[in-house]
Amino acid sequence: MRAAILTAYRQDLALETVADPVCEADGVVLKVLACGICRSDWHGWVGEHPKVKPGAIPGHEYCGEVVEAGPLAKWRVGERVIAPFILSCGQCPECQSGNTTTCRAQRVPGFGEPGAYAEYVSAPHAHNLARLPDSLTPALAAGLGCRVTTAFHALTGRAALQAGEWLAVHGTGGVGLSLLILGRALGARVIVVDVVQERLDHALSLGAEAAVNARGGDVAAQIIEITGGGAHVSVEALGIEATANGSLECLRPLGRHVQVGLPVGHTATMQINMNAVYMKQLALYGSRGMPSWRYPSLLTLIEMGRVDVRPIVARQVALSDATAELRAFDGPMPPGVAVITDFAG
């Protein structure tokens, strides 16, 4: 099969012919229909993710068609499925309690295992997969990736966002746009923060009530003024110290901070304003991915038209364009995300 290989950090991915993946007993092999290009992939490409080494095939936001199924897998050849990026074992105490994103034996394609920047990908633990609705195109399904699903779980499974509450979103990339769209669908009043005015304008066009350009001064003070006391829920979607502190400091007393941005490499350890946490008695949540059993509820909302994910995917690209998209994460990004849909080009 054709695949994009990381040969050296920050270098062009090599397009090579490699062996087709092996189907595991409880898994399937998928013909990849689409795969999102994510900032988490960038972390691996630049050498800041400990599980991504030269020789890796990136890609963890994918959907595909089953071309082979193991004897313990419930799926049949020809079915279209979408995969969470955390493939949980289903057997450990965390999985048995429903908290599959903290599985002790989790497997993540693209991070220690071959990913989906390829024509085919192995998906072990296929009980995690969800059927891809006919109404959802592969590009949009891959756009859900770890963005919409992560955002949905962060807001509903962690922060318990309520209608009428103020939601602050720090960073308007793929997951930031997802937080905006879902927050609005849940009845929240949403403020977005970024340093790229084009992205802020795009967010306003999608229903954000206010937008704060972080280049313009004290973000927290501006949000507290706009909201009349601070956000009820604030989500950090970049994984850097400045926005993590801005998220904490913009909250009102008893507010809830959710850490969605990936702190890894040089940002894994941060100096955090714990005085703000203490004085305002804030709640801090980490959120990574979404349990696979929650996929049907989110997909149903999308099928019903309650959530429109179309604004998230801005570009459909070829496999050969993946390096250019990864390099783009080094600077200010335009609105929307890129999805690989052409694996021959």
From TrEMBL:
Its cofactor is Zn(2+). SUPFAM superfamilies: GroES-like, NAD(P)-binding Rossmann-fold domains. This is Alcohol dehydrogenase catalytic domain-containing protein. Keywords: Metal-binding, Oxidoreductase, Zinc. The lineage of its organism: Bacteria, Pseudomonadati, Pseudomonadota, Alphaproteobacteria, Rhodobacterales. It holds the Pfam family ADH_zinc_N. Transmembrane segments: none annotated. GO terms for molecular function: oxidoreductase activity, acting on the CH-OH group of donors, NAD or NADP as acceptor; zinc ion binding. It comes from Tabrizicola oligotrophica. Residues 10-340 form the Enoyl reductase (ER) domain. Belongs to the zinc-containing alcohol dehydrogenase family.
